[in-house]
Amino acid sequence: MRYAVLVLAIIIGLHYIISFTNENYGRATSLSTLKQHVIGAGSESKVPPYKVAIPDEYHLPKNISSPIGRKANAAIVMLARNSDLNGVVSSMKQMEDRFNKKFQYPYVFLNEKPFEDTFKARVTELTDATVQFGLIPNDHWVQPPHIDEAKASQSREKMVKDNVIYGGSVPYRNMCRFNSGFFYRHELLKPFQYYWRVEPDVKFFCDLDYDPFLIMQDQNKMYGFTVSLYEYEATIPTLWKTVKEFIHANPGLVSPDNAMAFLSDDGGESYNRCHFWSNFEIGNLDLWRGEAYSKFFDFLDEKGGFYYERWGDAPVHSIGAALFARKDQIHFFNDIGYRHEPFQHCPQGEAHKRGKCWCDSTQNFDYEWYSCLNRYDRLFG
């Protein structure tokens, strides 16, 4: 995927010219103890879970075109504005054709403003599944009152001057904070345990003849991804310092068998900026609703970095998943072909053939220089 990498290299070279559980998590006693767990984590000789084939019994017969069998308690979630309608329709039609027309999982659409009738009509025409439309509570979306607006405004102005991507945008910060700490609290999502996050204008390249929600459920997975990469350093200058403060204050919330080695090359002293690209997520909502992540988000939110800097939900979710779940509960969905500009995961080999993928297999971000998938692989020895 050399053309996509070239795009990113240009962005970096110009210095961001673009502007706009149910699980008992275990105990670790300190950052130094956590470091020992991290160092020892690579001693097991395993292959990454995605390199173990999905069992045959999960795959539907080729002649099946309607829902059969058991289902997980799950929903497909889209955060969208009315103006995103065409992009929503494109993403949703692919989701239906590649996966959901066989499995019939419900959709939940969320918006900080009421959805228009035209939006609702076009969306509901695309699926036989249930569709719900939710309004985001105002206090879950707007800048919270404890933020010093003068300080936040000064920070935005500096980021604009420094050409930091989305550096001057308050709505973008609202979105990052909402996705980090509030989407899973919405009334429409309370009945569900699992979610698949889908965004407007993304592509799904491959037919999926098994249910990834059942893989999450049956194998006790907490978080699933398709693309991982490095975060823009200018958007998170104090994030890791804040994370370390939280770990020191709450060592017992961190899983001993964590994925810290994905985040840090020195046992947690510094952050290598690797994160899972959260525009695609298949997750267990219990991870975010649990004590560990709830306290973690509240701690970050109080520090104000979503507004004084520009902390994204991708690094926040990734750090949360890596610290509060076991490393084997984080899953790379190797056979789900996916693109969000400018990067894509295109399944290789037999997975490409089985999924009848229409992406070019040579355009694959997995092991390009800006990808972090090799760090995920190293978690397993």
Describe the structure.
Strand 2, helix 4 (117-124) and strand 3 form a beta-alpha-beta unit. The model is unreliable at 1-45 (pLDDT under 50). It is built from 16 helices and twelve strands. The chain has a single domain (2-52, 66-378), classed as Spore Coat Polysaccharide Biosynthesis Protein SpsA, Chain A, CATH 3.90.550. With 381 residues, it is an alpha/beta fold. The chain starts with a helix and ends with a helix.
Mean pLDDT: 89
Give the helices and strands as they follow along the chain.
HHEHEHEHHHEEHEEHHEEHHHHEEEHH
Please indicate the percent range of residues in DSSP E strands (runs of 2 or more): 5-15%
Described by the principal axes of the CA atoms, the overall outline is globular
- The appropriate CATH architecture is Alpha-Beta Complex
Task: Looking at this protein, list some descriptive labels.
alpha/beta, 39% helix, 3-stranded antiparallel beta sheet, 7-stranded mixed beta sheet, single chain, 12 strands, 381 residues, disordered N terminus, 16 helices, Spore Coat Polysaccharide Biosynthesis Protein SpsA, Chain A, globular
